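tool_log.txt
---
The assistant was asked to compare two proteins side by side. It first ran the structure predictor on the initial sequence, then on the second. Raw inputs and outputs are pasted verbatim so the downstream comparison step can read them without reformatting.
(1)
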Amino acid sequence: MRLSLFSRLTLGYLTIFVLVTAVSAYAIHQLRRFDTLTRSILSIDNRLLDLQKVLADKLDTQSRFEQNFVLTKKEAEFEQFLRLKEDFEAQLNQANALADAAAQNLLSQIQRDYQSYQELVAEEVQLIRAKKVYTQTEYKQAKDQFIDTIQASLNEIKANQQQATYAKLNQLAQTVDQALQVSIMITSACLLAIVLLSLLITRSITRPVALLKSKTREIAEGRFDAGLRISSPPELAELAAAFNRMCERLGEIERMKADFFSSMSHELRTPLTSIKEGTGLLLDGVGGQTTDKQRKLLTILAEESNRLIGVVNSLLDLSKLEAGMLNYAFETVNLDPLIRRAVAEIAPLVEAKQITVETAIDAPLPPARLDPERMLQVLRNLLGNAVKFTPKGGQVTVAASPVDGKLQVSVQDSGPGIPAESLAAIFEKFHQGNHKGAHTRPGTGLGLAIAKNIITSHGGEIWAESELGQGSKFFFVLPCSA
């Protein structure tokens, strides 16, 4: 019985998981030991060594201020001595909180000696302030003895902490060496297992995947013959059968789509064109004299026929674009004449609405590789929308210029604007933005979707910027021809 691809992968991953878990557990154990030793060195040993140095320095400084006071009798010297006394006692308390039992015994002895030293200094200060005669030499010898004893205790603490730090560093080194050796062994085993599992699994799937890849390329090129044969592993065999069924279905859909386009072209556009032409003949008086009311109705009928023909054409174009059946005739041309042609075509509607259209085209524009007719379709859609939503007396501006090595075109109107939440959705099928009331205009909501597909097929981008009440501005950029 052959294992399925899922079973093979599961077994392999389970093996790797067990090995990685073992490595991780061991690494966590060693890291905890490493962390404990490191924290002990940083937070206790190093801190105690720093405090020892500070205490020794402060003790020497106190002794100097105390001796200066004895010689000069200046109170400022004694005040400095008292300040250092407070600092010394505070640092001594910090050291006592961090120290182990041995260090605490030494710190207790230091505290007793320091207290005796302070009492001796206080006694001498009283004698000096009372201006009594006393033997300074005896006091100095006694004080120096306490100072020396305290310094000796501090040096002993320093030596003990340095020895403890050295021992912990040796322990850290041993921990690291041991962890490194074990990690190398387990990691090597994991890598070997991974390589072997990968080779075994790869051998069973590379050839079927290559066949699937080749078949996918054929489907992308429009060849839907069902001839894929894969027998193992079971999952890929089922996938191959699904591919074959998909190819059969795609072939049927392709035939249905071709029939649909043919039927749509004949069954919709032909009668609509006949209605349009018949309405035109009636308006021209071919069928006899018509009354004003009849002419008004015929005019409405002609306009609606044109709109329906436009809807059908837009639907056909969009369907072809989405199906990848729309052919492009790319050539290297200048966009300037196309823009001016689109502006000229819309001139009658502009005059009827009493608005102005301005062009701002940087000359000369760099050439671009594009399909002139399809790019005209984009320009007509953008200009038509701009004119449609611009109120009487408004203005539409068409601009084109090179920007960052690309060709940028914009169409700006002075209409009602588009809400920010609709700026991305307006390029979707059948979406016309969130226009309400007097600004609502009839349409299919396909023009911008078609424009986006065309621009994307040209390797460009299209987007809109707008603020309510401030008009809208549509941009698209195209790569320039090399």
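(2)
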Amino acid sequence: MSEQPRSVGVLILAAGKGIRMHSDKPKVLQPLLEEPVLYDPLRAASEAGIRNIAVLVGYKGELVEEYVKRDWPGVEVIWQREQLGTGHAVKSAEEWWKRYDNLLVLSGDVPLVRYETLLSLRTEHISSSSACALMSFTADDPEGYGRLVRLADGGVRIVEQNDATEEELMIQEINAGVYLFNTTALSGVIDKLTADNELGEYYLTDTVQLIDDTEGDIRVVFCGDPEELVGVNTPNNLAMASGVLRKRILNSHMRNGLKCMDPSTTWIGPRVKIAPDVIFEPGVQLWGKSVIGNGCRVGAWSTLRDVSMGEGARIYGPSVISDSTIGDNAEAGPFAYLRMGVRMEPGAKIGRFVEVKNSTLGEGTKALHLSYLGDVSVGGNTNIGAGTITCNYDGTRKNATSIGDDCFIGSDTIFVAPVTVGDKATTAAGSVITKDIPNGSLGIARERQTNVDGWDERKSTVSGGVKKAGEC
């Protein structure tokens, strides 16, 4: 059944501290495959086609708010100034969710939930016109979870662990903490919540019984994959979720054509995009918004973060590359370190033990050995000799070096920036270049060689066979 526009809002609860994480950072900002835990519930809600999303923040909420505004600009932020339970949290957002016919409530610490699961809940709720649809699953060890109690009259209620009887603690069907309310029904009971319980909090779970008492229709949607709705509350939970997400992401890319030599040592972040015909050697890690083009190969034990690779590009491992663009058929590594806005044009090559920062290498340009290139623009078809260094920092600011097309840079050239080298220019090996070199010119900046005849005999003519201090 189709929905009317703006008929569903999603409220993601992200106000908790997460005491069992033993961290000052809010639980929903703990890193999971180098994204905050909160990223995955937001992604699932978005992929389910729901555009009206709000995040409820509390503990160190300014940090969560900063993340949401930066990475999810269409998502609203609502504050819960006091953390008095999940029922109080939803009540705090009442002015927002009254805009919609239905409200999906989702915990910010369930990163394994799939968008298909949210779609199934929405379909059941909308098609049945229920007052509330909620999700449950069966856990072998339900410790810490609210139990779903099925009543003889067909109704249900949820009992939190701290308030459960011995008999209720034996129940293995548990509340997943995912609800889809009719907002009219929710509005009718939200003010009836009390804090008459072991923790003195307002439980959202109590709304289920209140709605049931008013003869509202309650639907339970069972999730057959209990792993999907497990909350991340401890470092162990975080590690478990990391492993599950890693396999999901990897399997998805391999179904689309990724050739992965050793899946057990490969890590791919959730925002990475990979074309079909790509090869990963063992130990590869890809993070951030990396995009890998068709026909690429990434060498063993390389780590890429926010890297764009054009078609046929290759990384020889191990290499570390971040915030960089590698053009079609360009190559880097092994032991290459590229960072902070490096751009390699098609066919460019960066080799062994070369570090490049905030620089551009033109089409066909090569820097193959033992060099540092910082804040430099290099034209096309230029050869950078071994040991070349750009001295770009004068102690106060970074200065730029510009090297033209078709240049030959001799080994151990040092450029003291700012300096410009024209097209088809050459530098003599071992030069310290402090002035511009015109087009087609040879730059030489080194001491003339001096040979001392008979040096071997002179150095051994010393008293007692030991050279005296200051003696030639």
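---
observation on (2): Residues 8-229 form a domain with the Spore Coat Polysaccharide Biosynthesis Protein SpsA; Chain A fold (CATH 3.90.550.10). DSSP finds ten helices and 39 strands in the chain.
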